[in-house]
Specification:
- The protein is about 20% helix and about 30% strand.
- The protein has a 5-stranded antiparallel β-sheet. Strands 4-5-8 form a 3-stranded antiparallel β-sheet.
- The chain is of the alpha+beta class and about 180 residues long.
- Residues about 75-80 have low confidence and may be disordered.
- The longest helix is centred in the N-terminal third of the chain and has 15 residues, at about 30-40.
């Protein structure tokens, strides 16, 4: 089983990821990579998404966690649970060869972290709304619009596919608070 590689040890995080040929989406190699990514993401308490580049595979592929989608805008341990959050996770969402179709002009500062940059958080200006076109794990093309939290996730993951880390864009960086014992 692969693992999420820390950014200091992962040159793929600084590469522009390659498109996956549409005919290869159903291949054993790509399907196995998607399953490994889903498994890794399911083990991350605060992880909301994962790009293939984070595993050392510079491919245009990312997955958004269904459990992250279920908890809405809460993406960090310092944000309290909300009473109306669904009790069960939604299905993970797979985005292959995503392309940004539209991004709003309005930006908002967002609290952000990364599974490849453990122990740090930052404040990053992100567009409030955006639309992507991509392929799912079955090779079907779809378009997805998003606002708020999901738009934030899309931008973070698209940056990964372009060799950019949130620490490159952060207006402010700070160390994670230690867990209370």
């Amino acid at each position: 089983m692969r693992s999420i590689i820390p950014y200091e040890q992962n040159p793929a995080l600084r590469e522009t990821a390659r498109e996956i040929p549409i005919d290869d989406i159903g291949s054993t190699r790509i399907q196995h990579l998607i399953e490994e990514m889903k498994d890794l993401l399911s083990n991350e308490v605060y992880g909301v998404a994962l790009a293939a580049s984070q595993l050392g595979e510079p491919l245009r592929l990312f997955i958004v966690s269904g459990k992250a989608l279920a908890r809405g805008t809460r993406n960090a341990k310092d944000e309290p649970a909300k009473a109306d959050e669904p009790a069960t996770a939604l299905p993970d969402q797979v985005y292959i060869n995503p392309v940004i179709i539209k991004t709003s002009r309005g930006k908002k500062d967002k609290h952000e972290g990364c599974l490849s940059v453990r122990g740090k958080w930052g404040i990053v200006p992100r567009a409030e709304k955006m639309t992507l076109r991509a392929y799912n794990e079955r090779g079907e093309e779809f378009t997805r619009g998003a606002s708020g939290f999901l738009a934030h996730i899309f931008q973070h993951e698209m940056d990964h596919l372009d060799g950019i880390l949130y620490i490159d864009k952060a207006k402010e960086l700070y160390d994670e608070e230690p867990e209370d014992e």
